[in-house]
Prior knowledge:
single chain; Rossmann fold; UDP-galactose 4-epimerase, domain 1; seven-stranded parallel beta sheet; two-stranded parallel ribbon; globular
Amino acid sequence: MNNEHVLVTGGFGFIGSHLVEYLLAAHNHVTVIDNLSTGYLNNLQSVLPRIELVIGDLGDVLASKRVRLDSYDCVFHLAGNPYIPPSTENPAFDFHVNLHNGFMLLEALRLTSNPPRLINISSAAVYGNPACLPIRETDRTVPISPYGVSKLATERYVAVYSEIYGLRATSLRLFSVYGPRQRKQVVYDLLGRLRNNSACLEVLGDGSQARDFIYVLDVVQAIVLAAEKAPGQGEAYNVASGTMYSIAELVAVLCDVCGLAPEVVYTGQIRSGDAEKWGVDISRLQQLGFKPQVSLETGLVAVRDWCYATIQ
Length: 312
């Protein structure tokens, strides 16, 4: 993508801010809609003057017509609740910011005379506990959290709007993304605990839980690749590294890059709505030319450096 006009919803968040930086570096004109509830202006402080910023809830912004969708070539939709726990604590909140606002965006696009293409950021949570591994896009989708339900429902609306109204749209099912600027989730939490107590590290679960961890810049590569090469017929793609690591393996690599050897204590408890294991087939995305670039160790070093400079 080069010299295009793009809209990024949730552009000051963890993944969104990295995407905005990439798009600006490729000489695109970027508008960001963000209510700054989970995003941070300082994520993009160095490039802020080059961004057109619209602050507000996505649904409200669209209802008040504060942006003209026909002025963009592509919309990257990342706004909403990005985590499972808030959805189990407040399902109505998750419904509004994920499904309701996603639907509002699709309706606004439908009513636009020359709608831009849409890249909808979805989640691996749509699968729930998979029946078999590795997970393929054709596998059953049985979410086990309100978050997974809202993401799956938005995906289905995307597919139907593409089929009926001709919207050029693609959904990306992100797995366990990590990287600088992520202020939640397992890698950030573990680094914070190591900083507070380098002798003993408490970890949820029993260590056998497994995830496919993918570095944020590899995710950005996948998002842009989908915008450039995906057919845009409502289809979905898994976005992951293609390699599964147990939590015990993650802990071992993380301690190694931090130069620490703490006693690791597993609590045996897991969070409500979390699946046990996620191993991923990414062959559909690879057919577009996707190749993950960042190893787990290299990515964890980058997060370590950022995190230690950030955690007070």
